[in-house]
Amino acid sequence: MCQVFTLGAKGDVVDRLQVGPEQWPLDGILGAIIDVQWVPASPSLLAVTVSSQVAIFDLATSSVAPVATVSLEPGPGGLLAASSFALLKGHLALFLLSDEGEAYCHRFANGSVADDARRSGGDATVAKSARLELPEKVRGRAGLSMTYSLAHHLLLASFDGGYSVAARVDLASGAVKSAN
Questions:
Q1: Under a CB-based contact definition with an 8 Å cutoff, are residues 51 and 31 in contact?
Q2: Phi, psi of 129 (to 5 degrees)
Q3: Would strands 68-72 and 123-126 be described as parallel, antiparallel, or unpaired?
Q4: Are residues 2 and 18 in contact, defined by beta-carbon separation less than 8 angstroms?
Q5: In 3-state terms, what secondary structure has residue 77?
Q6: Whether 95 contacts 81, CB under 8 Å
Q7: CA dist 92 to 48, 67, 76, 85, 99, Å?
Q8: Is residue 29 helix, strand or coil?
Q9: For labeling, which of 80, 98, 129, 171 is most exposed (least CB within 10 Å)?
């Protein structure tokens, strides 16, 4: 279950808001909530990552139904291990790391979740062509975690076997500029 707490001046919980259904994920695939994160530069957009998708809720309108979902194309490597948002110069992107160790970049239309949802009907599927080229040392290794540093503009990902990658990604094109 995913809940958002509102805290009072003394740090006590004054309100609770359940986000999404009591049982996750939304599409019935077995699994648990992997991550919960606020969408950068938005006070009301909350994203919940499960193995099959990232569900984005606009808490200003509904905490029950997502305004958008982002998932990978079905097939091998189609389950998520991690996700992370990035915002730079008006470009909003969602990085996805599959359980098979493939990384993808979904760029939101006009830098907006709402515009992207209108264009895609609310459900966006990230094509295999949006795969990021990562160094040879991590290819074929299971993806474990991923984060984007807004301060350093770096995508950081970890893989099975103790391998990690730091990459600079051009958010306008979705291409890796450098990785090691």
A1: yes
A2: -70, -15
A3: parallel
A4: yes
A5: coil
A6: no
A7: 17, 16, 27, 7, 23
A8: coil
A9: 129
AA letter at 177: K
Residue 27 confidence (pLDDT) above 70: no
Q: Read off the amino acid at residue 29.
A: I
Residue with tokens 């984007």: 148
CB neighbour list of residue 52: distance below 8 Å, 6 or more residues apart: 25, 26, 27, 29, 31, 71, 79, 80
* Residue with the two structure tokens 């080229």: 133
Secondary element (H or E) of residue 6: strand 2-7
pLDDT digits (tens, 9 = 90+) for 93-138: 999 999 899 999 999 887 788 888 888 888 889 988 889 988 888 9
Residues 6+ apart with CB under 8 A from 113: 39, 42, 45, 56, 58, 67, 68, 92
Quick one: tokens of 90?
């008006």
Output the pTM of the full model. Answer: 0.88
For 33-70, the pLDDT digits (tens) are: 889 999 998 889 999 998 888 999 999 998 888 999 99
Cα angle, residue 70 at apex, residues 64 and 75 outer, rounded to 5°: 125
Residues 6+ apart with CB under 8 A from 7: 13, 14
